[in-house]
Amino acid sequence: MNTEERQMDYLSILHRETALALGCTEPAAAALAAAYAAKALAEPVSEAQVSVSQYILKNGMNVGIPGTSMSGLAIACAMGLESRMPEKELMVLSGLSEKQKQEAKELVEKKKIRILLCETEEKIYIKVKVRSAAHTACAILAGNHKNLVLLERDGEILYQKECAAAQGGHKEQGQEPYEITLKDIVRFVQEISAEKLVFLKEILRVNEEIAKEGISGAYGLKVGKNLLSGGKNGLIGADVANYAAAMTAAAADARMSGCSLPVMSAAGSGNQGLTATVPIAAAGKKLGIAEEKILKAAALSILLTVHTKHYLGRLSVLCGCSISAAMGAGCGILFMLDGTYEQMCQTVSTLVADISGVVCDGAKPGCALKIATAVDSAVRAANMALNGDGADSRDGIVCQDVEETLENLGLLGNAGMAEANPLILQMMLQKQNG
């Protein structure tokens, strides 16, 4: 493969793995499935049954839904039913009228939407069955957040395709072109012209916008606001690490609490998109980095996030923001400071030694805490690497080869944590059910 072909492959990944999304990705996907089903029904929905995988239930249970004061999958699905616009994809929660929002709330209040846990091998699985007075319809998304695999009306198949995602292992199979390495990614960003990365400016702008909203507003735990105020009163250092962590956490504060601003997601997650890009923009601004280098750093960060998720899976028991996107952010910041490939490997090793055990216990306002920790760790790991320091093969699951380290991380997050996800979900359901 020549240089131009390789660059086209990586540009294709960047385009494919970034998407505009409103609200948390799992509820947005549930709303999308509901919109498909309602559009196929073509009549007012009297009731809906929504069956989801463990991961969708866990990530949709407690997160705020944009345009409402409510949380959870039921209101998200109700809004999807009212929207009937699946062509909006993960922006399906946008543009609803006040009347539509009220009708969605009434569906939930009248308990017309049932959320059920489905036993499935798929990490991402959403089945929405809707009924009117005389007809039924069904839509299934599986494998990824936008992947429609079945659409039916009155038992007649309107659309069907095989779900190719194999979610049971520690790698997602059949998802080309994912056979890449960190070395390949670094070579790509070194060789690519910044002019070919100008589309990333919009990603940085959108995610910076919600970060500013999180700082100015009063969302969630106000992690970002507290980090900035800590820098002013001397309790926390007013440095690049704190500023990057504050801005990224503020974006998550807003997003997890139902802010109506969209985000640009990465590797299927809005919070991963924020963690992979906001620290790059924030550090670049504070350090006075040229725009073309910021764009290249953002590309590196997103691609490394995607690459790490290749090992962990689209959804994981381990927190993708704290681990995958933090690696991207750390190496992206290192790139802006003229760090070498070897130093990036060291940054990845240090982050695996530091925060590889952070679990995902669902999407909720507290995600901002983990994101703040992740960004702080990313900057610290990058700084250590610049000084020639970092974790090595004596440190737990870290190996001498960076790809072997990522392989171990994937094994830990899948086979090693197989019993953790149902246990976490059980704890969350026990709280909810009293």
Report on the architecture of this protein.
It comes from Candidatus Blautia merdavium. Belongs to the UPF0597 family. Keywords: Lyase. The protein has 434 residues and is α+β, with helices and mostly antiparallel strands. The protein folds into two domains: 19-160, 60s Ribosomal Protein L30, Chain: A (2-Layer Sandwich); 182-432, 2-methylcitrate dehydratase PrpD (Orthogonal Bundle), CATH 1.10.4100.10. The protein is 54% helix and 10% strand. The chain has 16 helices and eight strands. The chain has helices spanning 3-16, 25-41, 54-60, 73-83, 98-109, 182-191, 200-216, 223-233, 240-256, 270-287, 291-312, 321-336, 341-355, 367-386, 402-413, 420-433; strands spanning 18-21, 47-52, 113-117, 125-131, 136-142, 148-153, 156-160, 263-266. The strands form two sheets. It has a six-stranded mixed β-sheet. The protein has a two-stranded antiparallel ribbon with strand order 1-8. Strand 6 and strand 7 (156-160) form a beta hairpin. Helix 8 (223-233) packs antiparallel against helix 9 (240-256), helix 9 runs antiparallel to helix 10 and helix 12 (321-336) packs parallel to helix 14. The longest helix is centred in the last third of the chain and has 22 residues, at 291-312. The protein starts with a helix and ends with a helix. Mean pLDDT is 94; it is low at 164-177.
Taking all Cα atoms into account, the compactness measure Rg is: 21 Å
Question: Looking at the structure, what is the overall shape?
Answer: globular
Helix and strand pattern:
HEHEHHHEEEEEHHHHEHHHHHHH
Structural class: alpha+beta
Distance between the termini: 58 Å
Count of discrete structural domains: 2
Tally of contiguous helical segments: 16
Largest sheet: 6 strands, mixed
Provide the CATH topology of the largest domain.
Answer: 2-methylcitrate dehydratase PrpD
Strand percentage lies at: 5-15%
CATH class of the largest domain: Mainly Alpha
If you average the pLDDT, what whole number results? 94
- Helical amount: 40-55%
Uncertain residue segments: 164-177
